[in-house]
Amino acid sequence: MDSIVVTGGRTLNGTVQVSGSKNAALPVLFASLLADGEHRFDNVPRLRDIDSTEELLRSLNCSTERDGNTLTVGVRRPDAPVAPYDLVRKMRASILCLGPLLTRYGEARVSLPGGCAIGTRPVDLHVETMQRLGADIDIEGGYVIAKASRLVGERITFEKVTVGGTENALMAAVLAQGTTVLENAAKEPEVVDLVHYLRAMGASIDGEGTSVITIDGVDELRPNRHRIVPDRIEAGTLLIAGAITGGNVTVEGCVPVHLQALIDKLRECGFSIRTGSESLTVEAAASWQGADVTTAPYPAFPTDLQAQFMALMTQADGTSVITEGIFENRFMHVQELVRLGANITPMAQVAVVRGNRGELSGAAVMATDLRASASLVLAGLAAEGETQVNRIYHLDRGYEQLERKLAGLGAKIRRVAA
Ligand code: UD1
């Protein structure tokens, strides 16, 4: 298994380009299942999760073809609307094919994803939504088996804000009979991006980006072309990389407003952040203060930047209290940061970080999930000596060439093949 070796102590400077969003691309790719023909997507990042999605689409009789960052998906009726365990277990987001397959073909057999490193992450809300739209559901042999001659619109209030659940509901409701109202819906930019594509396909949807989304079902959709939004999590990670090394880094090609919660926190820490129309710059700072953070659904501070922000807080003056409000087991990076010399006390959903600038020293550490891996790379940038981050396949699921981007800013970083 590949690892990444970072030699800390270099100040990052310069400009770096953001890739398309993984979390926006995945649902949009699954949305292609809603209409036969050729769908074309621009700004699709090259990532393992995108490969897994393509593999699943191909198993459903689709063709996929890449030309640079453009991915063309040719959709045809599958022999059977089934997402097998072998493919779903590689990527939890595969559950997103449930809504499109069910609404299009009147049945779907989708494997349950099983556990994952950042908690139990159930899919009960996805399944319940299909039931509310009129599907008969059986759970058998580890599969969700859903059937409905045609889904029927309904008013659905999510008991918890769920990004994937909202996306699945949207994709199911666009071809349902009548009107569906989703209350307490997710407002994430990735949900909005999905709505933009569904609308381009001919769907009738109102209210995206708010907590109430209304969908009027239509009989048929058609393929179209769509550009995936920039990855706000990658942009935030790169901005923190600049910050933690005390450098001047401009992240280009992002949507600054999507990162407002991070920008506010960095400013609270004392960083100077400049915003352009499609760029963000963090200016060099010799020191910064600790700040408390609580993760919550958008537009609050994203859980997907919690681990990276924690790495930054290990180098702050003072104490930071970091509260994880979305997932119950998302502090797996804490023990690894502690191995590098960080002073962090985790307590259930809260971690107390006592900043100690210059006190990290390189070590071999283990990546446990996607964002945890990024946090360890960031800590490595600030540590003295060499940090070897193992199990880097997690990073490859969601970051396009992170080591090359960081090296372009002046980091001493290399990938080591096992
Ligand atoms: C998406 C993102 C992920 C991000 C997360 C929260 C993708 C591919 N992944 O994940 O990077 O960290 O949003 O911003 O877009 N829940 C249930 N039952 C369900 C569904 C969710 O209890 O059926 C719970 C989850 O365990 C979690 C919370 O709801 O505690 C939010 O999860 P959700 O927003 O659904 O996350 P994902 O869509 O899986």
Structure description:
- The chain has 418 residues and is α/β, with parallel strands linked by helices.
- The strands form 6 sheets. Strands 22-23-1-24 form a 4-stranded mixed beta sheet, with helices on one face.
- The protein has helices at 22-31, 48-59, 85-88, 98-105, 124-132, 163-173, 189-200, 232-244, 260-269, 306-313, 332-339, 370-382, 393-398, 402-408, and strands at 3-7, 13-17, 37-42, 63-67, 70-75, 82-83, 107-111, 136-140, 143-147, 155-157, 179-183, 204-206, 212-216, 225-227, 248-252, 273-275, 279-282, 293-294, 319-323, 343-347, 350-354, 364-366, 386-390, 412-416.
- Uridine-diphosphate-N-acetylglucosamine binds at residues 23, 26, 93, 119, 121-126, 160, 162-165, 190, 303-304, 326-327.
- The site of uridine-diphosphate-N-acetylglucosamine has 20 residues, from helix 1, helix 5 and helix 6.
Ligands and ions found: uridine-diphosphate-N-acetylglucosamine
- Helical percentage: 25-40%
Return residue spans where pLDDT drops below 50 for at least 5 consecutive residues: none
Which structural class do the helices and strands define? alpha/beta
Q: Sheet with the most strands?
A: 4 strands, mixed
What separation lies between the terminal Cα atoms? 5 Å
Mean pLDDT: 96
Radius of gyration: 21 Å
What is the overall silhouette? elongated
- Total number of strands: 24
Trace the largest sheet across and list its strands.
22-23-1-24
How many helices in DSSP terms? Answer: 14
Strand content: 25-35%
